[in-house]
Amino acid sequence: MKRRIAGFLIACLVLQSMILLSPSLSQGAEAASLSAYCTANTLNVRKGPGTSYAIVTSGGSLVQLHKNDPVTVLGASGDWYQVRLTFKGNTVTGYCLKTYIKTSGTSAATPTPTKQAASTSYVSAVVTANSLNVRSGAGTSYTKLTNLKKNTQIQVYGSKKNGSGEVWYQMSVTVGGKKISGYMLSTYVKLSKPLSSIATPTPTKKATATPTKGAAQTARLGYVNANQLNIRSGAGTGYTKYATLERNTSVTVLGEKKDSSGALWYQVRVTYRGNQLTGYMLAKYIVITGSAPTATNTPKPTATNT
């Protein structure tokens, strides 16, 4: 009987020591996940919370983070964070020293990421430039919607190559409680994983206003009859603001569309600061003056013998 009790006590002690020594079962590993990024030039990802643990390998390579690389913090163990990251297209989990990981304070995806990430319609990313503009289209000639600072977290939905061969990311970001959608130059944006992981990327239709039935009618001329009037990416105040036009600004009305509340909006074209914008404006503040002139073919002069 005494031997049975002694054996039971020894088994309990062994089980307790295994639980205490296992990094994956630490209390910190159960904490809510957070978005974060690396602040060191190079940082090793280890198999446990300490330098005595081996560096994690993936595809035959040592897993290391570089400055501004995004990670998801899954938990903590002493001075170390348990993190999840994408390394050469593979999802890797390991430990990094807290000193060189800065959290954004926002909750990340759930600690079981693989299936969740495969079904998302965007890729998390971070701005790597000190200052980077968000524009209404894929090029520097488009209107600047806002400016983002280094390490700002954004969501990328797709990419588009412009006429100069530059690749721009279609993205969204929340600034001051308001969601802004636009384009950013891909050179200065670091993705957390490849864009190919997006379930159904549909980048172009979101940013460019699609013609409505009204757009097929004859274009009309008009002007703004309010002190200030916004031009937006769609028919409604919930769409991104491209610019604000002053009273008496001339516009070309291409079509019309009602929003969900029944308010009528005009699809317009206007030249703003040297750039041509196409968007929507509330119809009750636009005065129609007449039809836009139709282009006519000018006959070529006939050469005569002299």
Find the count of extended strands (DSSP E, 2+ residues): 23
C-alpha geometry: elongated
- Whole-number mean pLDDT: 79
The helix tally amounts to 3
Strand content: over 45%
Question: In terms of per-residue confidence, which ranges show pLDDT below 50 for 5 or more consecutive residues?
Answer: 17-31, 109-119, 200-216
Question: What string, H for helix and E for strand, traces the elements in order?
Answer: HEEEEEEEEEHEEEEEEEHEEEEEEE
Helicity level? 10-25%
Largest β sheet strand count, sense and barrel closure:
5 strands, antiparallel
Query: How far apart are the first and last residues' alpha carbons, in Å?
Result: 131 Å
Structural class: mainly beta
Task: Specify Rg, calculated over alpha carbons.
Answer: 28 Å
Neighbour order of strands in the largest sheet? 8-7-6-1-9
Overview of the structural elements:
This protein has 306 residues and is mostly beta strands. The chain has three helices and 23 strands. The protein has helices at 2-21, 113-119, 203-207; strands spanning 34-38, 42-44, 57-58, 61-62, 64-66, 70-77, 80-87, 90-97, 101-107, 123-127, 131-135, 144-149, 153-161, 167-175, 178-185, 189-191, 220-224, 228-232, 241-246, 250-258, 264-272, 275-282, 286-291. A hairpin with a 2-residue loop joins strand 6 (70-77) and strand 7.
